[in-house]
Amino acid sequence: MELLENRIKEEGLVLPGGVLKVDSFLNHQVDAKLMMEMGKEFARLFADKGIQRILTIEASGISMALTTALVLNVPFVFARKKASVLMSEPAYVEDVYSFTKQETAHITVLKKFLPAGEKVLIIDDFLANGEAALGMARIVEKAGSTVAGIGIAIEKAFQKGHSRLIEAGYHLEALASIASLEDGKVTFTKK
Ligand code: G4P
Ligand code: NA
Ligand code: NA
């Protein structure tokens, strides 16, 4: 998606350790118009999949899952990273290990917000090692629903997540695919 790639070129900051900082439009300050365009693009990419629900994870997945849900006219739910005392109802819980943070999160979705027998689109802002996406996919499958696709805003194709999701048989679409962040430079995957 050219609009997103251009923003990454203009405002993205490459940090040591293969991390791309995009907090001026995605991870901290959020460009609502860009999120709307991303929602339209996700909706277009998965238009023929019969999507009935969207699942994302807090915090940064929410803004683009919201706009995608608006365009597709389906409900969306976000997994919580910490179960709150208010969640004393039956829930799906999956352990997701973050290599970036070197800690395990217990991602949680109440069962009542993930009915069985649906086609679910998983959305997230970044794909690195794929732990978050695979954790959400396990939750969808435990619920008796189908992962109809995985939509990622920015994938780092040089990390394991891309190939892990493809090998697991999921339909993966990334709006921007980064081949390398070497030498402080963003290189996009050739299409
Ligand atoms: P994984 O799920 O693909 O295995 O990724 P990992 O655990 O390594 O990522 C942990 C967090 O860091 C996630 O956000 C993920 O979106 C984010 N992340 C990974 N690589 C990058 C990167 O290069 N740039 C940026 N900006 N973020 C990256 P999170 O902790 O869940 O935070 P939130 O933003 O959703 O609150
Ligand atoms: Na993130
Ligand atoms: Na995220």
TrEMBL record:
Q: For binding 5-phospho-alpha-D-ribose 1-diphosphate, which residues are annotated in this chain's numbering?
A: 128-132
Q: Where are the transmembrane segments?
A: none
Q: Which residues form the Phosphoribosyltransferase domain?
A: 50-160
Pathway assignment: Purine metabolism; XMP biosynthesis via salvage pathway; XMP from xanthine: step 1/1
Main site of residence?
cytoplasm
Give its E.C. classification number: 2.4.2.22
| Positions annotated to bind xanthine | 20, 27, 156
Q: Where in the cell is it found?
A: Cytoplasm
Gene Ontology CC terms, in alphabetical order:
cytoplasm
What the entry lists under InterPro entries is as follows:
PRTase-like, PRTase_dom, Pur/Pyrimidine_PRTase, Xanthine_PRibTrfase
Asked if the record carries the keyword Transmembrane helix, the reply is no
A molecular function (GO) term: xanthine phosphoribosyltransferase activity
Functional summary from the UniProt entry: Converts the preformed base xanthine, a product of nucleic acid breakdown, to xanthosine 5'-monophosphate (XMP), so it can be reused for RNA or DNA synthesis.
Assembly with partners or alone: Homodimer.
Q: Which family does it belong to?
A: Belongs to the purine/pyrimidine phosphoribosyltransferase family. Xpt subfamily.
Indicate what this protein is called per its UniProt record.
Answer: Xanthine phosphoribosyltransferase
Q: Which organism is it from?
A: Schwartzia succinivorans DSM 10502
Gene that encodes it: xpt
